[in-house]
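Continued from yesterday's entry.
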Amino acid sequence: MAQWTTQDIPNQQGRLVVVTGTGGLGYEDAVALTRAGADVIIAGRNPAKGVEAVGKIRAENPRASVRFEVLDLANLASVAAFGQRMQVEHPRLDLLINNAAVMAPPQRQVTADGFELQFGTNYLGHFALTAHLLPLLRRGHNPRVVNVASIAANNGVIRFDDVQAEHSYSPMAVYGQSKLANLLFSFELQRRSDAAGWTLLSIAAHPGISRTELIPNGAGSNSRSGLLRRFLGPLLFQPAAQGALPTLYAATAPEAKGGGYYGPNSLGETRGFPKAANIPAPALDVNVAARLWTVSEELTGVTYPEVTVRTEMHS
């Protein structure tokens, strides 16, 4: 996959895609996929940003098939309502990119349902969303789910004794937990798809270190990480379009493997072109993955079809 770029995306004509997140990586995903002919739904909580994203895409590509739908991942009722609208309006879904995220707010915040904001938005919201859309995905053409993780997952730990960070809140530790959870979910979803014969590919990707609004929107523009982003960003952070490449590879490349994980190929996976990423050891623990799945169903109130998964380690 040497220097794979958007020029290598196969024709996506006729494929229906949902991308969560209106800016940054999600926007770049939508740009590239509409250029390749896909019908793209950008799903996010801010209608103004959604309309702006759609307008920019159409200004560059008047033939783009793209629209915005309201989806607040920090509100399970909004997630369920989005899923219900999709079920009514579409016979199938071919690609779901679970991309939207909140990063490192300095003070602990909670979602509408009382979950810690990062775990609730980055992981639980997407866990519930995927469950609501699974019937459509199972009717999709070569369906894929792409879960966006982070190199922060390398230091992540699932704190089952304090998964909502009620007793101890460290912004980056909780962010790392949410992104490790995305990885565990991605691999477990593939195991369940294989066991049940869903023909669904579940693939994870991470963008390295990219210039998006994730840090300013989370930690704040005047935080230490926000100032670093502002003044050293052009040197240390790759453009968002470059950071989106591993996700787009996972979403479209015929060579991308179910249960795979892709990231940038240079400078410790912080920048570059897509390659198979190094998987942090905790993400391979099938017992942790199974426990997290059960806890997630209990917390969100969503249920996936019952599947018996073999217990050998993911490879």
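--- second protein ---
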Amino acid sequence: MAKLTNLLIGAGAALVLAACGQAQNTAATQPAPPPVDQAAEAAKAQLAKQAANEMVVQNFFKPGTTMDERMDILSPDYIQHNPAFVRFAEVNNVQNGRDAFKLMLETLSKLRGGGPPFGPPQGVAARGPQPPQGNMFYKILADGDLVTVIHQRYAPDPQHKGMFYEVYGFDTFRLQDGKIAEHWDDATIPTMGPMAILMREPVSKLKFPKQKQPVY
């Protein structure tokens, strides 16, 4: 009886060892998971971030975006390199680029009697041949935290009356934490028109026409 018991115990142990060995062999033959391509993952993350930055800039320019919405897109420490906005801030002693941006657009709107700050004054019908429709988002180029938007518009051709030629401008933004933190463009300090007035006189000395609709 004792011999039979020892034989059964030995057989059981042999089966256990055999099963363990088979499990080890099976594990050894399983293919190892592919290594993580860290460069590819980093590239995907970069592309996703650039796409998000592009969307922020598009929302900034999108028609119908309110002043409050645009201000929310700008970083509290927003840096402005547009010389017209910089000169306006100097004339009005506004130290923060974000505050100067808001005050200048609001003032331009008031000078035009309300409504959008750019374009013809409210209630004034356009005269003569009109240019083709331009494209605010002709090209959008992103490189890391920098996003450049190339704008297409049409200007009167001085050599062919009633005709227009293509003109391109740009805005480049640096984004930080989902906000526009810095801006460059191809603008110059104007010498004529409503904007030129803002380069010379502080807002406190300006006279505004009657506002026909709420200020932009």
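Residues 4-17 have pLDDT under 50 and may be disordered. Helices lie at 2-29, 38-61, 67-73, 83-92, 97-111, 194-198. Will compare against the first tomorrow.
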